[in-house]
Specification:
Shape: globular
Distance between the termini: 15 Å
Structural class: alpha/beta
CATH class: Alpha Beta
């Protein structure tokens, strides 16, 4: 049976140098995260506020925590209030973004976030459509943010074996990022494209992903 360290090494070795590995540690114990940390991994992602809040004090202070789950509005202050979340990847509405911005301003920090897009065919996925995201930026709404830095986009492809559909979903996310950058030439630091998981990350990289979110291939099945 492979160890966390050996699986991590295999995944990391498959990535181009410009792609960052986000180890999805949700539902795995702090000890498993420590094994990956000791093997050199520094970016970890969780999907539940209660879980990430519990894990942060148990683990080294230089871990860069990402939040990737659906963030309920009543949990925003608990998450931002840790002051330890490097990136909230799953901002799926303008209302949620405003709440994060308000909480970050109250904490006296700048919270980095990604806008989550919904391009997959599943209705259960959260996020803005590409057109909604483009309208948000072209309308200038992002200029009103006081304590939030939008660093790019996050998205998921459809859960299907149809490779053409998966590739098209990733290309749609990447193209939306290019359209936003072209429409807003004054935007700065809008350079993260987080897409791709254990089963489809190579297709995501081909489409331009800069960050891949990989859990099962590192930590095993939950």
């Amino acid at each position: 049976m492979q160890s966390v360290a050996s699986r991590l090494e295999a995944v990391a070795g498959s990535l181009p140098q410009h792609v960052s590995l986000v180890a999805v540690s949700k539902f795995h114990p702090a000890e498993a995260i420590r094994q990956a940390y000791d093997a050199g991994q520094r970016i970890f992602a969780e999907s539940r506020v209660q879980e990430i809040v519990a894990k942060i004090p148990q683990l080294p202070a230089d871990i860069r925590w990402h939040f990737i789950g659906h963030l309920q509005t009543n949990k925003v202050r608990a998450l931002v209030g840790t002051r330890r979340i490097d990136l909230i990847e799953s901002v799926d509405s303008a209302r949620l973004l405003d709440l994060i911005d308000r909480a970050a301003a109250d904490e006296g920090i700048v919270q980095k976030v990604l806008i989550q897009l919904h391009v997959a065919k599943e209705e259960t996925k959260f996020g803005l459509t590409p057109d909604e995201a483009l309208e948000f930026f072209t309308s200038g709404r992002w200029h009103t943010l006081r304590a939030t830095h939008i660093c790019g986009l996050m998205g998921m492809a459809s859960n299907t074996d149809d490779r053409a559909r998966v590739a098209a979903d990733f290309e749609s996310i990447a193209e939306t990022g290019r359209r936003i950058a072209a429409a807003c030439p004054d935007i700065r630091g809008f350079d993260i494209l987080s897409m791709g998981m254990s089963h489809d990350y190579m297709a995501a990289i081909e489409a331009g992903s800069t960050h891949v979110r990989i859990g099962t291939a590192i930590f095993g099945s939950r």
